Amino acid sequence: MELALIEISEARTYLNYVDSRSVNSWAQKNEVEVFTQGKCKFMLRDQFFAAYNLPIFRSLIKKFGKVQGTLLFDKYFKK
Fold this sequence. Notes:
Layout: E1 5-7, H1 8-15, H2 20-29, E2 34-37, E3 40-44, H3 45-52, H4 54-64, H5 74-77
Antiparallel strand pairs: 1-3, 2-3
Helix pairs in contact: 1-2
């Protein structure tokens, strides 16, 4: 099984951040693991997009209720 990774510089464009330290603090706040290999830093793609889209999912769940089959996001909504 191969894990899909997203580089910090690519995540920076999604988040509209200027520097990688901001992305690191965002990842820590949203419980996304950051891996380092040499000088490059990576995150798991699925974990990043789950945290990135979380505000949208929260508003949809608030509006329409929880849908069965959202196991990926269950850990975020138990809070």
